[in-house]
Amino acid sequence: MTIFLNFLTIIMVLMAVIILMWLISLEIIRSKKMGVFLPFFIISLSYCINVAFNFYKINDQRAWLVPESLLTISSLWILIILIKNNNV
Amino acid sequence: MNKIIISNQIKIRIFFCFLGVLSGGLFWLISCTLIKNEIIKKTYQQLVEISDLKKNKINSYFSIIDNEIRELANSEETKYLLNEPLVSSEQIMKVNVDEESKIIIKEIENYIKRNPNKNFNEFKNDPVFQKITTGIIGLDGYISIESYQQQVALFNEKKTFFGRTYEDIYNSPELYKLIIDGVKNNQDIYGFYSWKEKNKKPIKRYFRITNLGVKTGDGVGLAVVVAATVDSYKMVKEVSELNLKFFEKNINKKDFNNLFLINPDGYVIYTNTIKEKVGSNLNWPVNQNWYLTKKFIEAKNKKGLIFSDAYIDYYSDLYPEFLALSPVYDQDKLLGYVALVKNMNVVFGITEDKENLGETGESYLVSRDQKLLISPLRNSFFDMFVQTIDTDNIRNCFSGIKNPPINISLNYSNERTLAINSLITGLPWCLATEIKESEVLKISFNKELFASITIFLLFSLIGVLVTIRKKTGLVEKEEVKKISKIDNFFIKLKIRYVVLFSLIFTTSYFFLVTSFFKGWKKAAFYNDIPDLVMIMVLINLFFNAFKFKNMVAKKMIQWGSVLIMIDKLIQVFFEEYNNNFEILPLYFWLPVGMVGFVGLFLVFYGFKKEMKL
User: Fold this and answer.
1) Is the pLDDT of residue B11 over 70?
2) Average pLDDT of A51-73?
3) Is the per-residue pLDDT at B469 higher than 80?
4) Spatial distance between the Cα atoms of B600 and B541, rounded to a whole number of angstroms
5) Is the Cβ–Cβ distance between B572 and B532 less than 8 Å?
6) Contact B587/A31, CB-based, under 8 Å?
7) Per the CB < 8 Å rule, is A79 touching B544?
């Protein structure tokens, strides 16, 4: 049961990441602007790394620092874009 | 055909409902699995404790018996008796033969009574009757059936006397006289006589002729003759009263069913109950199938203390018995063996104890040949020693395979049980303790159901709240922004104050969470710091959204940042748990992870709207 649920978790996260990447790609194609969507793309990539770590059962704190930091930096990037957009 | 148009508002609401169903369902699945696992784990642990307790009790009981038999083997009385030289004993031999003949006579009488219409000739040709009446007594004695009216021997083991008259058979004048006198007076005849076969020395024999109390269907009276050689029986010349008292005292005090002293050649020189066996030899063919003989041979080969399997000596016995046999040494010289018999009521008492075993739980003992030895169910469902318990649990027990962390296997009636086994030290027995899985899993999941429904309703409510058209919610078209006092306050709020607030909030949260575990010094910094910084960013994002001109973007980003924040706040807690205790199963992260993803999607759409892309 545990194995099944763990597998289900990985599959669901992967599906969510694929949908997110798909939507981002569509938006990039539609708006022809890549820079503004880059942080979302990096967030998706960090989730992909998460999935890989979970799949290979990597529990090292330092290893997890990489995807977590990517996520944080990307969020900060989004915040900066929005602040700049409002102040201009 | 009209195309059905579903508004974005309905789509979002459906999405949230779906999310609610998914989260509620997952919560239900996970919580039920966890609770089931936990209960099974607890019950199994309890079974292990019960099994260990019973095993220890049985082991202690057998260590007491071990001490008792060693005490007897080392006693002066035992050594003295086993050291005495053996002599032929007419008295012992007579007791022995008389006891044997009593049993045979009873058997023959019963058979004749069961067949009242059979005549003399029919009995003569009846193979069952022949089998009953052709036993061996002692080493070379025999049983025969005779018709004293016709003075003819009918059957005996050697079949040499068939159809011959007494005159032909008994070439001993003293015996012939005894028989004739007995027949005339219609009495039981017994006595000792001298017997000589061709080219052999005369030997002294004992015989007994007993008239049967019943007659054949045609009115022929029968007599049973048993005869045996005196010299074959050996006994200690004299057993002192003191010695006898010592053994009787031991038997009564220690609750032995029987006690045997056997010399190295196999002669039984003492027993307190089976009198007919005293003086006989365990190596005689007649004794070959006796449980004592089997263990005697085993002990001779093993040269140490041995315990027997359980057995039933008499069908009327309530409990089976077992036997312990130990060699007796005087320094290095083997004097003989001491064997004691005990019934298994104490062991039965230990196994039948059903405390903490529920309705279907039970403990039972199984012998190495996978025969059920003892069980609380013995009187209702199973025959002891007949029922074969061929289950994984028992096979693993005798194969020496250790119990897995949790063992759920099929029991003897093919039902799933939580099963544990323990091999009893020094004995060929396995103690199985089992409880049916169906009983263990009789649990009510009402609370979990309630929580799942609440989760579903909560998500649905969020869906409704974020899509309210008037006043606050998401709208299809951009509405004219109405700035309230609160909005105005947040719009004017400077970023540095928001950063300060988020810093205070995250720091406090960090210390709060770590206080539940091993303190902030032992926190999972590598995991916590990015998450806490992310929370700070999200707080800033939330407050910054008040400045947005687009109301839809504002609401989406605010809701999104709140949901991601919930995800991150719970993640910090989980990471601390992982760091301090054990690694949580991956599926624990799924519900919060999904909440985070929903937040991410909302932020993404809000971002798109605000950037007018």
Assistant:
1) yes
2) 88
3) no
4) 12
5) yes
6) no
7) yes
What's the pLDDT tens digit per position in B551-581? 888 989 999 999 999 999 999 998 888 888 8
pLDDT band per the 50, 70, 90 thresholds, residue B315 = low
Q: Show which of residues 20-79 on chain B sit within 8 Å of chain A, judged by CB atoms.
A: 29-30, 33, 37
Q: Residue type at A20? A: L
Share of chain B above pLDDT 70, in %: 85
Helix (H, G, I), strand (E, B) or coil at B583: coil
Please name the member of A8, A33, A86 whose beta carbon is closest to the beta carbon of B587.
A8
- Residue B494: phi and psi, rounded to 5, are -80, 150
Q: Please indicate if any CB of chain A lies within 8 Å of the CB of B589.
A: yes
In B292-428 the beta strands, taken as DSSP E runs, fall at 306-307, 321-330, 333-343, 362-367, 372-374, 408-410, 416-423
pLDDT-derived band at B362 (thresholds 50, 70, 90) equals confident
Cα B466 from Cα B199, distance rounded (Å)? 122
Residue B11 exposed, middle or buried by CB count within 10 Å (0-12, 13-18, 19+): exposed
Q: What one-character DSSP code corresponds to residue B521? A: G
Which residue does chain A place closest to B598, by CA atoms? A16
> Chain B: nearest CA to A35, how far in angstroms?
12
Using one digit for the tens of pLDDT, what is the confidence trace for B225-245? 788 888 888 888 777 777 778
B258-262 β-sheet, strand order: B268-271, B258-262, B333-343, B321-330, B306-307
> CB-CB: which of B533, B585, B613 is closest to A5?
B585
Q: Three-state DSSP class for B230?
A: helix
Check B590 against A62: CB less than 8 A apart: no
Pull the structure tokens for residue B567.
């995800």
Contacts of B221 (CB under 8 A, 6+ apart): B147, B148, B149, B211, B212, B215
Q: B385 touching A, CB under 8 A?
A: no
pLDDT score for B382: 41
Phi and psi at residue A20, to the nearest 5°:
-60, -45
Q: What is the pLDDT of residues B132-168, one digit of tens each?
A: 877 777 777 777 777 766 555 555 555 554 445 555 5
Longest dimension (CA), chain A: 54
CA–CA separation, B537 and B499 (whole Å): 8
C-beta of residue B420 within 8 angstroms of C-beta of residue B51: yes
Report chain B residues whose CB lies below 8 A from the CB of A36: 607, 611, 613
In this prediction, residue B512 carries a pLDDT of: 92
- Residue among A12, A16, A68 whose CB faces B527 most closely: A68
Chain B, 452 to 511: residues with Cβ < 8 Å from chain A are 495
Q: How does DSSP assign B284-329, residue by residue?
A: SGGGTT-HHHHHHHHHHHH-S-EEPPPB-SSTT-SS-EEEEEEEEE
Q: What is the DSSP letter of B29?
A: H
ipTM of this predicted structure:
0.94
Higher pLDDT, B187 or B518: B518
Q: Do B611 and A85 touch (CB under 8 A)?
A: yes
Q: Is the pTM of this model over 0.80?
A: no
Is B526 within 8 Å of chain A by CB? yes
DSSP B454-512: HHHHHHHHHHHHTT--STTS--SSPPPPP--HHHHHHHH--HHHHHHHHHHHHHHHHHH
Does the distance separating the beta carbons of B524 and A27 come in below 8 Å?
no
pLDDT band at A40 (very low <50, low <70, confident <90, very high): very high
Contact criterion met (CB below 8 Å) for A70 and B537: no
Is residue A7's pLDDT more than 50?
A: yes
The burial class, CB within 10 Å (0-12 / 13-18 / 19+), for B280 is buried
